[in-house]
Amino acid sequence: MSPILQAHKLVKKFGGLTAVDDVSFDIREGEIFSLLGPNGAGKTTTISILSTLLEPTSGDALINGHSIKNNTMGVRKSIGIVPQEIALYDDLTALENLRYWGKLYDLNGPELEQRVAEVLEQIGLTERATDRLKTYSGGMKRRVNIAAGLLHKPKLLFMDEPTVGIDPQSRRMILDTVKQLNEQGMSILYTTHYMEEAQELSDRVGIIDQGKLIAIGTQAELTLQVGENDSIRILTDPTDDLTAITSRLQGFEGVSRVTVDENALTLITPDAESYLAPIITHVSQAGARIKSIEIVEPNLETVFLHLTGRALRD
Amino acid sequence: MRKIWYITQKDLLLIVRDPMALVFYLLAPFLLTLGMAAISGSFNSSDKGLSNIPLVITNADQDQLGDRLVTVLQSEELNSLIYPVLIDDFEEARRFVDQRKAVAALLIPVGFTHSIIPDYRQPVSDEVVMLELFTDGESTYSIGVIRAILETFLNEVESSRITYSTAMIQFVNNGLIAAEDLPLFIANLSSEMGTAGDPNIGYKIVSDEKVVESNNLNFLAIMAPGMALMFLMYNVTSAGVSFLIERRNYTLQRNLVSPTPSLQIIIGKTFGIFLRGFLQVLILILASTLLFGLNWGDWLGVVVLIALATYAACGWGMFLTSIMKTPAQVTAAGTAVGLIFGMLGGGFLPMATMPDWLQTVARISPNAWGSQGFIILSSGGTLVNLRLILLALLAMGTVLLAMSSIFFRRIILQGNH
C-alpha cells in the first residue's frame, strides 16, 4: 500500500519549548494509524501541523502528494479533521452546523443535502437534526463533531482524542464509527492516550512522548520490544507510602522495573508465575496493604512503561 | 467569494439566535435616541431646537469670496439654522453680541478674497487675512455650528485653490499656456504653492469674557451624529471579540483548516460585524428622523457616509482584536477606545468647540471624520462634498484591516497567544 501521509523530520518549537521533536512516520492508504502518548506528548501539535493549522519550525509532510508547506489548499481538501474540542456552534442546530461546514468544503445544493443526511444517519442523530446543539449531551455533540469532519469524504481523517470525556455508550459508538469508516476505505490518523483504544483500532501505532516518536510498528512488533516480560499490577491502600516501598523493590530479584501510579504499583518481571510469591511477600513486609493483584500480558501500556519508565496516564 | 457570505451569514444567524444580543443590537439605538431626546428636551413640542442662530455679518471684503460666503450663510439650506443679519460696521456688530442680540459677529475683512485668489495686477502680499468671529463665549453649540459652516466653506475654497494652482502650473510646464502671457500671475501662483501649508486662509475667534445665558438649544440636533458614531465605534470594536471567542471554542481553527483562505475567513467575519454596525446606525438615524424630525441631509450621502464610517470602525475593531489576547481585553480596550474616540469625535461636545490641536488628533478616529461629514450633509452638502472624508475613512479602514489580517495570520499560524 502506498503512503497517504509521509511526515519527515517535523519539528515545532514554541519559544524554548520543543513540542514536536524530529517526528517522522507514514500512513498507508486504508490504514488506521494511532499516535499513542500521555497528555502533553505532542499529539495535538503534530495533528495541527499536519492539518496546516500550524507551520512547522522545520521538516515537511506530504499528504495525498501535497506538501503541508507549499500546497495547504491541496492538503486541506484531502483531509478531514475531528478536533479534540467540540468545535461547533452551540446556538445552531446540528443541521445548520453540518450545512455550514459542508459549504466550507465546497459542497452545495443537492450534494450537500445528501451528504448531510448521510452523516446524520451514520451518527444516529437524524431525529434530532433540527435541535440546537446546546440541547445535546456531550456524547451527541462528539458525534456531530465527527460528522462535520466526514462530509466531504476525505481520503485521510485526523481524529484527535475523539472519546475524551464521554459516556461509555457514546465511546463505543465512536469506536464502531471509526472501524466502519476504515472499512469503507478511509485512512485514519487517530490520537489517544487510552491504550485500549489504540489496541482495538490500530493497524500500526506510533508511541509519542515529550515530542519524540519513540517507537512505531504493529502491536506485535511493539510488544516484542518488551521481550517476554510480564507485568504485575498491585493495588494497595490509598494511605500507603508507595515511594518508600518502591525504593525497597529496586534491585529485588525478578523485578526489572517498578513504577507508581496513584495507589498502584506496576512491576516488570521476566516470569510472573515464578516471582509472584516472593514479590508479594516483600511488598507486604515493606508495609503495603494489598487490595488486589493483576498479572498483565505485554501490551502497549507495558511497552510505554518499558520505553519511558512511566505509566501511560495523565 | 461565496464562502465569505457563508461565514457572514453564519455570524448573523448566531446573533439572531441569541435573543439578548439581538435585543441589544436592535433596541439599543432606539433607547439611545430616546435617551438623547430626553436629555435634550426634544420631547417638548414647543422646543424648536437648534435653529435661527442669530449671526451678524460685516462684509468688508466686498469681493468674490466674501460675497460667496455671505450667500452661503443666507442660503435656503441654512435658512432654518442660521438667522444672518448684514451690518456694515463691525463695531456695531460686536455690540449686537454684547447686547445678546446675536451669538456671534463675523467680519469678512478687506482683502480676504485677494489673500486667497491673488490679483496679478497687484504685488504679492505676505499679510495674513483671516475671517474674524466675535462670539459671546458661552453659546457653545451655536458657535460650534457656525464654526463648522465656516470650516466647510474654507476647506472647499482651499481645495479649489490648490486644484486650480496645480492645474495652472501643469499648463505652464506642459507649454499649454505661454509663460510670457501671465508672468506676474504665474509668479504669484508659484509663491502661493510654496506656502501652501501657511495659515493664510482661516478664521480666528474672539470671545467676550462676560457670561451670557445660552440660547434655546436642542442638543439632539448637534449631538446625534457624534453619539451615533460613538455608539457605532463602541459596538464594532466590541464585536471583534467574536474572533477570540471562536478561537477559544476552536471553531476558528476548524474554519482555518477547511479549504478556505484565511483572508476570506477574516473578511467574512468582518463583513458580519460591518453589517451589524451599519444597521444599528441606520436604525438610530431613522429613529431620530421619524420620532424627532431631525434633518440628516442628503440620504445617499448619509448612507454612504455610514457605510464608510462603519468600515473604518471595523478596521479599528479588528486591529484591536488582532493585538489582544483575550475577549476580556478586547472588551476593555473596545470600551476605552469607543469612549475616547467618542469624545474626540463629538460624542459629548461638538468638535468645533475643541482646541485646534485636539481636532487634529481627533482625525485618527472615524468619529471625527464621520461627524464632519454629518455636519456637511445636514448643512445642505451632498455626496460630492464628502469626497475627502470618504477617502480618509476608506483609507483608514483599509490600512487597519490589512494590518489586522497580517497580525491574525501570523498569530494563528505561529500558534502564539
Helix content of chain A: 25-40%
Distance between the termini of chain B: 29 Å
Q: Report strand % of chain B.
A: 5-15%
Main β-sheet description of chain B:
5 strands, mixed
Overall 3D geometry of chain B? globular
The CATH class label of the largest domain in chain A is Alpha Beta
Which descriptors would you attach to this protein?
heterodimer; A: 314 residues; alpha/beta; Rossmann fold; Alpha-Beta Plaits; six-stranded mixed sheet; 14 strands; globular; B: 417 residues; abc type-2 transporter like fold; 2 domains; 5 strands
Give a written overview of the molecule.
The complex is a heterodimer of chains A (314) and B (417). Chain A is α/β, with parallel strands linked by helices. Chain A folds into two domains: 216 residues, P-loop containing nucleotide triphosphate hydrolases (Rossmann fold); 70 residues, Alpha-Beta Plaits (2-Layer Sandwich). Chain A is 37% helix and 28% strand. In chain A, the strands form three sheets. A six-stranded mixed sheet of chain A has the order 6-7-8-3-9-10, sandwiched between helices. In chain A, strand 9 and strand 10 form a beta hairpin. The radius of gyration of chain A is 22 Å and the shape is globular. The two termini of chain A are 35 Å apart. In chain A, 44% of the residues are buried. Chain B is α/β, with parallel strands linked by helices and 417 residues long. Chain B folds into two domains: 237 residues, no CATH class; 155 residues, abc type-2 transporter like fold. Chain B has 16 helices and five strands. In chain B, helix 2 packs antiparallel against helix 8, helix 2 packs parallel to helix 11 and helix 11 packs across helix 12. The relative contact order of chain B is 0.13. At the A-B interface, helix 2 and helix 3 of A face helix 1, helix 10 and helix 16 of B.
